[in-house]
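INPUT
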Amino acid sequence: MSLLDVKNLRTYFHTRNGVVKSVDDVSFSIDRGETLAIVGESGSGKSVSCYSLLNLIPQPPGKIESGSALFDGRDLLQMTAKELRQVRGNEIAIIFQDPMTSLTPHLTVGEQLIEPLLEHRDITRSEARQRAIAMLDEVGITNPEQRYHDYPHQFSGGMRQRVMIAMALITEPKLLICDEPTTALDVTVQAQVLQLIHQLQQRHNIAVLFISHDLAVVSDIADNVAVMQKGKVVEQGSKQDIFEQPQHPYTKQLLAAIPHGGKQNAPSIDNVPLVSGRNLQVAFAGAKQQWTTAVNGVSLDIHRGEILGLVGESGSGKSTTGRALLKLISASNTKIGGQISYQGEEIQGHDNRQMLPLRRRMQMIFQDPYASLNPRMTVFDTLAEPLLYHSLATRKNVTEKVLALMDDVGLARAFVRKYPHEFSGGQRQRIAIGRAIATDPEFIVADEPVSALDVTIQAQILELILQLSRDRQLTMLFISHDLSVVRVLCDRVAVMYQGEIIESGKTEQLFNQPKTDYCRRLLAAVPSALVTNE
Amino acid sequence: MSTTTSTLPAEKGTSLWQDAWVRLGKNRLALFGLGVLSLLVVVSLLTPWLAPYPYDLQNLELGATPPSWDHWLGTDTFGRDLLTRILYGGRVSLAVGFVATGVALLIGVLYGAIAGYAGGRIDAAMMRFVDILYALPFMIFIILLMVIFGKNILLLFLAIGAVEWLTMARIVRGQVQNLRHQEFVEAATAIGLSRWAILHRHIIPNTLGPVIVYTTLTIPNVMLLEAFLSFLGLGIQPPESSWGLLINYGVETMEEYPWLLIFPGLALSITLFALNFLGDGLRDALDPKASKD
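OUTPUT
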């Protein structure tokens, strides 16, 4: 008998706008020591189906309409709240997506760790403490006895996720639900965390229910895969079956969305680079007048028509470099040094007024389309603002120009008066891209423009960016932590580590013959073999 | 998804304010609040013609009487018609409430937004100044103003406004500090917008939610503050009246003549209800994310 057997689960949300069938007739089962991955885009119901099992969905508006979930012979869906509390965090544990927000900031890590033990086990505080320290050690946290007394903010993202894993496993659960546990982490850290989960699973014979939107990640660790779309499981099978003989068109689409291959057309490299940074330095003031150096002596040239990839982990200074090139870093509490030139013109010393004519020629696309659009401005206002401000349109023809812009980025004209929250992530990113190209710029800094999006949407947005850059002969600095995306898109790549560029070169060259150790490690950390040459 | 906006695009893009106006028009409760407030304002303006008696006409023989045909809301201990006094009091109270709050709103939002957006030393200096004013005992501050400028109703507006803006500035500054680091503000910088354009187009509209709520809370506060100042002899003096004064007086005589408390209290309550309905409606209308049907 399998450990967990879910049959015909239906969870509906009764909203003002009607019933949303988030989970519609979903069945799956999972054995001891086995990993089942549920894959799908956001909104496909993968998280809701797992949270339904533990009754963790908001009710109302959510309601579990029907189904059964036999866990060790007992039906989770029929349990009383009290019985369920005995199961939660005890026999079934959860790791959440964002390690930054899933730990309570005002309690030490130790206190949070022993909480489930004290709740579910008859155990003294000192015993719990020893167990917690052993667990911290097991998940690879050095100096566990000292770190036991630290607060969450003293840990990095990857370390916090390790703490979360320790917390989940401390009661020796039979089933571990991982809800996108590595999505918020850097690639190298992601690889470590995945490996850790895998090891612990083997050692303790735990069943893992792994929720992810990323097929590449799943390919590394899953035994079985269930693909969800719009609340239904469209395909289910062993990993081999899904990856090698996908049946359902949606699965094929997901597989095709994993970027692979390389970029061909080479830009014409002339003598004067369009944008050039020399020995850039950026430091931010921290507490007590201590300076944190974010960018330390970075020099780079970007030639007209070229797409330069800038890769590195978060905190490596790649975003700061991009912003510094556009002179977007505010001067208060920062030290900025070095030279920036644009078409041979030195611009580091320019003030706002001197920058104004240049602003329309250099633009930025931001990572998070939820944060980069003013929530109180309609699409029209957002797109019209740069046009009007730079006198590229008059009051009379601005509507026409905005609509043309919407066509260019693939947004339906009817959306012109809607507000950002009425759009999906991909559509929002289209608006943001529209704003960036409104003034017909030559140079664009794209700061992780697709990393906040679903995989299939990523592919579409990348396609749009590629097409626009071809049509408009854009020069681009493409900042990303995702090497597979960079490989597809960029002509040259520069790798940043701790504020410095440690390696750069032609894309294929760098991918095939990395020179530095770090670069090799970065490439090795890319999940799955799907990214290799075709 | 709403269908109202999916028609063909209008000639011009709508601004937040036009949209807000349309949405406010669909909110019955808010419209009701707006209607009541407008009525109150109109009545206040027309009071000299509407009031059945002069506001200072005493009838000591009559004394305090309960509501009757001659005096709809009764009379006070001096035999003055209560309806008349409430009408005249409304003029003062509404004027103080709106003007003083307006002053507070204007200064507070601008000051807070500038401090929060400038950041660094400018912010520190500006906020320390606010702290100093906070620390200054309110009474002393008002009395000082009165001593320097003399008693005068305009000064009352200014004095109250000058105190109430402090909290507003703090609220706005906190909001702006958060917003300043949002990517859409950075995007506006990348477009090349001037600081002022960023402030008034991208930042201030996004602080409106808390500001409106706090404003609707400030207006009644200010009305009661006026009563307190009048009680101390710094504001309105009898025989003139204000709702605050009437309520104060009503409290003293509550046991013998309850109507002297009930009716002015009712007038204030109705105003506050209307304000709250309107405030809630405005907040929702100015937030595109607020649910719509």
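end of record. Chain B touches chain A through 42 residues (CB under 8 Å).
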